[in-house]
Amino acid sequence: MITEKQIEDTIYQLYKQAAIVLQDDVKCALEDALKREDSDLGRLNIEAILKNIELAEEKSIPMCQDTGLPIIFVKLGKVPVENLYEGIKKGVAKATSEVPLRPNVVDPITRKNSGNVGDKVPIVDIELIDEDYVEFTIMPKGFGSENNNALKMALPAEGIEGVKDFVVETALKAGGKPCPPIVVGVGIGGSSDMALKLGKKALLGKVGERNPDPTIAEMELECLERINKDGKGPMGLGGRTTALDVKILKMDTHTAGLPIGVVIQCWADRHATARLEDN
């Protein structure tokens, strides 16, 4: 059995890792952006981001003061699990006090702060899988970027061009608010809620890797090119790189609809994954 304590310890370590250490694919994308950047101000901003990443690892402190809303994706296999949600909550609470993390979670009406464990928070998404393990992925989602997400319940007649236009429009409308260079996650299909969930899951893919579907891969590259061609640049202050990547996932939907969920992520595209197996 996978115990509550194992889950707590795993979530604690994942949150700590995600908050402090940025994945190599994102760091490489930022370094590549610096090499391409011909704006002095753009270069200055990317250099500051890279220095920030270096200092966070060196000093073992979070790379951003907004340590995010705790979102955990769970792939639940055919293994016995003890008190799954309780273990997740305890892991988040421990990370909040010991890393430490900023207590971000509040009641939406009263604004009373509950730390990072509150009513239905941490947010947990469970996917059932036919495997002999449980996989946890934590995504600390900052709200400088989250506040720029968008949903469009498009008509099928708008087609691929309509999808691409909405993705680009949403990314450019965000301007400097989400601390670009951004990563753009896009979900197409499903229902309104599923489109946005897919957009978040798209952000879990490696920056620079293309969707295996050639049509989707082409859409990703075209949207990325159009976003960067605008020239908003790092921190919205001008330059060649407004977005590091565009990642798209799709699922089937109703014949009368074309839901499009666009999820904006700042340069700190943070997530960490671990698996637990039944001993």
What does this protein structure show overall?
This protein is of the alpha+beta class. It has a domain of 122 residues: 60s Ribosomal Protein L30, Chain: A. 40% of the residues lie in helices and 24% in strands. The chain is built from eight helices and ten strands. The strands form three sheets. It has a four-stranded mixed β-sheet with strand order 4-1-5-10. A hairpin with a 6-residue loop joins strand 2 and strand 3. The longest helix has 20 residues. The chain is globular and about 50 Å long. It starts with a helix and ends with a strand. 43% of the residues are buried. One of its GO terms (molecular function) is metal ion binding. It holds the Pfam family Fumerase. Keywords: 4Fe-4S, Iron, Iron-sulfur, Lyase, Metal-binding. Belongs to the class-I fumarase family. It is an enzyme of class 4 (lyase).
Strands of the biggest beta sheet: in what spatial order?
4-1-5-10
Query: Beta fraction of the residues?
Result: 15-25%
Round the mean pLDDT to the nearest integer and report it: 97
Detail the poorly predicted runs. Answer: none
Order of helices and strands: HHHEHEEEEHEHEHHEEE
> How many extended strands?
10
Q: Write the CATH architecture name of the domain at 144-265.
A: 2-Layer Sandwich
Radius of gyration: 19 Å
Give the CA-CA distance, first to last residue: 7 Å
